[in-house]
Design brief:
The chain is α+β, with helices and mostly antiparallel strands and about 290 residues long. The chain folds into two domains: about 70 residues, Multidrug-efflux Transporter Regulator, Chain: A, Domain 2 (Orthogonal Bundle); about 190 residues, no CATH class. It is built from ten helices and ten strands. The chain has an eight-stranded mixed beta sheet with strand order 3-10-9-8-4-5-7-6, sandwiched between helices. A hairpin with a 4-residue loop joins strand 8 and strand 9. Helix 3 packs across helix 4. About 0% of the residues have low confidence.
């Protein structure tokens, strides 16, 4: 959003003629609008977001379906984010990152992947591995994950795009790209969604690999997970436009109701404890979930 989000949901409802319950429903179902959040969890909207809502209302009056109107407005305003972490923080300034070592991130990632597999859905999977060598260590696991996924996309400093087969695609990024400092995992299914994004702090060349630390956020908020898929689609568009369209279309199909977010967070946390234990180094951060208006 180009301006500071300061408007309450009641003010937005008054300015647009769209009721507050309808705005909440659109956000939960379509990931639109995209309000900021105060530390209390209350929504705050920008003037730009109000104008986008008015555009949706005009398009609906002109005969477009709600989904088509939202998609048109979203595409017209879409910006290619430099990374998933940066994009989510920009959309949710109140998200609090936790400083975690790499070994803990491995546990968090495996927990998200395993919970996704246990639900026997066909998810969208996106992973960012920084360097190809890191991905090759995890490649056998990702090949297994891709077998039951609708689409699995991996970003790393690969020399070129490679379609591995079975829905798994490797997409290259330059070593100077912001995404090259990032560890991300997005899992979006119809009744389950989770996203982890972590940014590696600079100045760790002399640190043991397992001790490298990352500023980390993770969420089961379905609207935010859909935002993460959209950011990944933007990152993929220049390399594989057909994959970007497939990501967006599949994410739209997954815009219906999901499981209770507290239940999802509880299920994931149980798996995470099994992976990282309850030591001080492996203390688990609290996930971001949807909060009241």
């Amino acid at each position: 959003m180009s301006d500071t989000p300061t408007l309450t949901i009641r003010e937005v409802a008054r300015r647009t003629g769209i009721s507050a319950p309808t705005l909440r429903m659109w956000e939960a179902r379509y990931g639109f609008p995209v309000p900021g959040r105060l530390s209390s969890g209350h929504r705050r909207y920008s003037a730009d977001e109000v104008e986008r809502l008015r555009e949706v209302a005009r398009d609906r009056d002109a005969g477009l379906s709600l989904a088509a109107a939202i998609d048109r407005v979203r595409r017209s305003a879409e910006e290619v984010e430099p990374s998933i972490f940066a994009g989510l923080r920009r959309r949710r300034p109140a998200l609090v990152p936790y400083l975690l070592p790499k070994r803990t991130l491995i546990g968090l990632s495996h927990a998200i992947e395993d919970e996704c597999c246990a639900r026997a859905e066909r998810p969208l999977l996106v992973g960012s591995f920084q360097r190809e060598s890191f991905y090759r260590d995890a490649e056998p696991r990702w090949r297994e994950l891709a077998r039951t996924a609708e689409l699995a996309i991996v970003f790393a400093d690969f020399p070129a795009r490679r379609d591995v087969g079975g829905g798994l695609v490797e997409l290259p990024m330059t070593s100077s790209a912001p995404l090259a400092r990032e560890w991300s995992l997005v899992c979006a299914a119809r009744a389950y969604g989770a996203c982890l994004a972590a940014w590696e702090r600079p100045g760790q060349t002399a640190v043991l690999d397992a001790e490298r630390v990352f500023e980390t956020i993770w969420t089961v908020d379905k609207a935010l997970v859909r935002e993460a898929v959209g950011i990944a689609a933007g990152l993929a568009a220049g390399l594989a436009p057909e994959l970007a369209e497939q990501l967006r279309a599949a994410a739209e199909e997954r815009s219906g109701d999901s499981e209770d977010q507290l239940e999802l967070a509880t299920a994931l946390t149980s798996r995470m404890v099994a992976y990282v234990g309850s030591s001080r180094e492996g203390a688990l951060p609290t996930p971001h979930t949807a909060r009241p208006a």
